Fold these 2 entries.
Entry 1:
Amino acid sequence: MSSLSKKITFITGASSGIGKACAEAFAKKGSNLILLARRKEKVAEVAKELGKKYGVKIIYFQADVRDYKQVKKIISSLPQEWKKINILINNAGLARGFSKVYEGEISHWEEMIDTNVKGLLYITREVLPHMINNGSGHVINIGSTAGHEVYVNGNIYCATKFAVNALTQSIRLDVLDKNIKVSTVDPGMVETEFSLVRFSGDREKAKNVYKGLKPLSAADVANAILFCAAQPPHVNIGEIIITPSAQASSTNVYRR
Ligand code: NDP
Ligand code: 8X3
């Protein structure tokens, strides 16, 4: 039997990309799931399909991680048995825009900071007390190579992912005596809805990001996240950096 069987895994941003792939990877290992995203039909569809396919229990919520009141209400009103959250995957996040700071859209900045930093904090703030109550837990943040190295026009997105990196390290210190593990999985180029969102629905621009190379798939990243979660209790994987083989850094990419 898998070590994840009957565990409860809470995944934010489960309606597409890496979050959706995690939902599938964890359900396949027998984990029950709490899924959250803003697009209700999409997250409902993921829950329905995986519940049927893997026979695990799944509850889902339409919610915006930027809304602290909503986040608090959802987590505090979880049925008692669902409050025993074993694993939190802080995945909800996005990039918006790709321009110089002196030409950037303030609304894009607010959206990235509010989602990637404040949203991650709101969720973590509400979930950690339950893990502490339960005497164990595992927080897995989804950072990025952009949280290790800046690139031209990456500015605010990179800053939010540097913040995720700092928060991962800080939270690990905060819960050191609580039997709670904290990991970060930091991907390079993954083909999901990410670039479509960054370029506000421009399919051509989004496609060009991955031109001439084989990017990671969401399932590749989910596999690394699963690896972190499946270690024995005394082992914590602190950080995984995962890129396509054709990517050596944010800007050094080999395209055929
Ligand atoms: P997708 O756009 O495919 O998925 C993003 C997910 O986040 C969606 O489910 C979206 O759901 C959810 N989300 C966004 N904003 C909110 C919000 N305010 N409240 C709740 N959910 C939200 O992209 P990825 O799967 O690629 O991105 C997942 C994470 O991986 C992000 O944190 C991203 O920064 C990170 N990452 C991605 C890389 C890539 O190249 N793709 C590389 C490195 C890191 P909905 O719109 O329904 O709310
Ligand atoms: C996503 C990877 O290179 O677009 O975090 O910043 S990148």
Entry 2:
Amino acid sequence: MAWFRPRESQTDILRPNGLPTQLATLTRTAVMGVLNVTPDSFSDGGKFQSADVAIAHGLFMASNGADIIDVGGESTRPGAERISLDEEIARVIPVVEALVKSEVVVSIDTMRAEVARAAIEAGASLINDVSGGKADPEMFQYLAQIEVPYVLMHWRGHSTEMNSLTNYTNVVSDVRDEIDDQLFDVFHAGVESGRVAIDPGIGFAKTVDQNWPVLAHLEALEELGQPILIGASRKKFIGELLAENGIPRDVEGRESATTAITTLMAQRNVWAVRVHDVRTSRDAVEVVRRMKEAR
Ligand code: PMM
């Protein structure tokens, strides 16, 4: 029948090498649940500061359908000051250990090689580095010695200065070219190319308006040939989009729009979305998966 076209291959989703089996065989976009063990992250800061509360929330997200729990100890909120290495390790490692013990797949959200090392030794399965190797010169050297996947994010500078680093000639091609430069460095350090996923860094050194073309022109990032992760969940650009009478939508009220972005990204075959509300995004990627299967 003319309307019956061959099924689209589920392998259209490009994913990094080195993932644990349950993630390597997924036929849909993966859902990464955000677990910030920080007093000041923008959307959940302070809520999961104590290790026990953080662990409970990580387990809750896993039972709600998260494929990966992304544990971070350092806030990347615009303007945030850095914390010490010891403080970061003290915040995240007990949480990583407990989640791994419960057989949860954990990624470590850190810019520091030493934190990444401690987390991998505690059983984490991937490294999520918002600086894409730029904050710590040791990161790529460490990565070259191990075999876990790595998320390399577009990054121009630390949180204290990133809001002043938003000059682009063309945000879409500039972000792509800068990620390409970061990729050159990571490959040059000896890291296997198949292990690296890329992320345009929604809200990082980007004005509210600059995030939209980046999301709308994912083909520019796709040209780089790496798996893609998107972290748009509850961010300021959504709050501004949904503002009423000049007042941005509060963080909790950004969920439906976040789910809409997850749907569009899954449709586009991104490897993973990093979100706060796991259930809604997981539902969205299941819908997309089923729709693709029915084609
Ligand atoms: N955003 C935040 C933190 N870590 N990691 C990746 N890979 N991509 C992101 O967009 C990203 C990240 C900041 O948001 P949060 O305060 O909600 O964690």
